[in-house]
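Run log // design_07
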């Protein structure tokens, strides 16, 4: 009866002893082992063995990156402006033994060291430089914290200044300054837009005037070419007319009468002065004297013309020519025919009386 109980007790004790020999460490973690109260070794992730009752696990250390978000810290700038700055520190344990034995509270130590280092850095900068130099502050803060925490087995991987809170009066001044700057930019933008509008309008007017001048020049050239062409065509027509008259054998008397017609057409206009060659003036005067004499002879009843006009006269020949169609020709021809009829009637009357 006692033997099975003893065997069971032995098995249970063996299992307990075996369990105390085996130690399993999770991933991204390490365990600090002390033997008889003194640091012996560091257990890494996986299965590890230790001596029961002699060796003990002092601490378990996480190797994961930790984020330390510290509350806002009051900081005074170089130009005596007090502001609140809060930062975020990213840290990682690279030596579990130093992290366990070199500092009692690593997180508090990092927070205190971060606050003092931040005050030193911002104290060397003015307010405006602090607002515009976040990258510089982050880099210097990380460098100094990493160097100071190496003895603690801590690696500072990154530091970020999360927020900067100036005093309320400074915020009001900044708001007014920002509003003034925006109004200034707006005024400059409107001025530039007006300037561009004026310049564009002037350029448009200039181009319009240039195009109008070019169009007027082209129109003038076209008109001049048209007039030149018309003049050339008139000259060719006149030359062709003269050539036709010459080839048709027109007598010089007909050409003179055509000249009279041209002079009559000029005289019917509004011209107050007419310039003619002296020879043409003499011929026109002779024709007028002849016409006036014939008219006065018929208008006076006491004067009777007994003889017909001399047909050997070249002017009479021209007047009776069927080619002549001018007013002067018609007057001379009508007068001559009337004189012939009257002369024939007088001759018949004389024969009857005899």
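design_07 sequence
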């Amino acid at each position: 009866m006692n033997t099975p109980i003893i065997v069971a007790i032995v098995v249970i004790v063996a299992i307990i002893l075996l369990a105390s020999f085996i130690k399993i460490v999770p991933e991204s973690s390490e365990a600090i082992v002390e033997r008889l109260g003194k640091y012996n070794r560091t257990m890494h992730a996986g299965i590890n063995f230790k001596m029961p009752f002699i060796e003990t696990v002092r601490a378990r250390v996480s190797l994961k990156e930790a984020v330390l978000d510290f509350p806002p810290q009051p900081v005074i700038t170089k130009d005596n402006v007090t502001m609140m700055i809060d930062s975020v520190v990213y840290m990682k344990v690279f030596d579990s033994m130093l992290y366990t034995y070199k500092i009692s509270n690593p997180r508090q130590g990092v927070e205190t060291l971060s606050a003092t280092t931040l005050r030193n850095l911002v104290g060397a900068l003015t307010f405006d430089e602090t607002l515009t130099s976040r990258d510089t502050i982050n880099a210097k803060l990380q460098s100094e914290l990493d160097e100071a925490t190496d003895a603690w087995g801590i690696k500072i991987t990154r530091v970020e200044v999360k927020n900067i809170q100036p005093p309320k009066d400074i915020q009001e001044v900044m708001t007014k300054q920002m509003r003034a700057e925006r109004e200034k930019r707006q005024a400059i933008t409107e001025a530039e837009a007006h300037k561009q509008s004026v310049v564009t309008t002037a350029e448009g007017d200039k181009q319009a005037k240039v195009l109008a001048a070019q169009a007027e020049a082209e129109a003038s050239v076209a008109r001049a070419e048209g007039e030149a062409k018309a003049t050339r065509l008139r000259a060719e027509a006149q030359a062709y007319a003269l050539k036709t008259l010459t080839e048709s054998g027109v007598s010089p008397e007909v050409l003179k009468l055509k000249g009279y017609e041209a002079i009559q057409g000029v005289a019917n206009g509004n011209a107050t002065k007419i310039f003619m060659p002296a020879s043409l003036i003499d011929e026109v005067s002779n024709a007028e004297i002849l016409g006036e004499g014939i008219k006065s002879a018929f208008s006076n009843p006491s004067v009777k013309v007994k003889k017909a006009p001399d047909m050997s006269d070249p002017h009479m020949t021209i007047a009776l020519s069927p080619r002549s169609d001018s007013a002067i020709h018609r007057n001379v021809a009508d007068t001559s025919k009337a004189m012939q009829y009257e002369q024939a009637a007088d001759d018949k009357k004389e024969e009857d009386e005899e």
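Residues 288-298, 300-311, 318-326 have pLDDT under 50 and may be disordered.
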